[in-house]
User: What shape does this take?
Amino acid sequence: MDKVSGQKRAGAHLFPPIDPFDQRMLDVGDGHRVYVEQCGNPDGMPVVVLHGGPGGGCSPMMRRYFDPNVYRIILFDQRGCGRSRPHASVVDNTTWHLVADIELIRETLDIDRWVVFGGSWGATLALIYAQAHPTRATHLILRGVFLSTKRELEWFYGGGAGNFWPDLWQQFEGLIPVDERGDMIAAYNRRLFSGDTMLETRYARAWAAWENALASIESEGSGGSGPAEYARAFARLENHYFTHGCFLSDDQQILANMGKIAHIPGVIVQGRYDMICPPVSAYNLSRLWPASRLVMVGKAGHALSEPGISAELVKTMKAIGVSKISKI
Assistant: This one.
């Protein structure tokens, strides 16, 4: 099945398309302006959506996982990507800048507490944000868990996933001289930040294509890289964050700090055949999180657009909405 068909099947589980009732560019400091939008019910239950990447940006489809009559849906493009500016910039762009941005958005929109919904890097950011501000998240809804560990990065950029997709790995690895292949993140970093826009774009496309090809179990390795502008921001930001260990002080920082958020209810939706973020991370996280529920979705990979993952996320958000309404 092609990617478009897979998205259509996922869309069957979602709410109808909606437009924002509020769009703004928020000055978050350091020369960065972040795109923020609100959809749904202005008086509804607030939910903030944290997109993946880093550098992926939000999309209109992300609005559709929530009942617009129940939820006040907040989406934003993280620093350097999507509609945020400056585009593809890694200056003053770290995990801790993003955590501060999320808090500024919450305060600017006069929200006390909210549901935090994130997938892949968005799940990473959701966990780090909640650990930094444990009184602000009412629930954590996570998909395709990434814990920002060396083990995970070595799996995806060190040949682990390449053992399952050797032809695609060769396309990704083949652009790098043999003597540099021992550290693919560093090798791509030299090219993504070369100062030559054409060279950066070429390697950005290869970086994005490697990840996108493995995102969905139904894509059959044909994910593509997306437009050049998107690929350049996505690749540069991901590489920047991964080069710096996502700016965490400890490789096991997220798991080591789960005690801070053990009380927050959470649902982890994980594709059983996720080739980008293997399920062991979600499993290890759930074991340290007593208030969580782990849902392994069979015949599903990493992408938000996987039909089984979409269905489970919508089901989860409906249940939270019903629970909230029943208490009123």
Summary: Strands lie at 22-29, 32-40, 45-50, 71-76, 114-119, 137-143, 266-271, 292-297. The domain at 3-149+247-327 is CATH 3.40.50.1820 (Rossmann fold). The chain has two domains: 3-149+247-327, 151-245. The first strand starts at residue 22 and ends at 29.
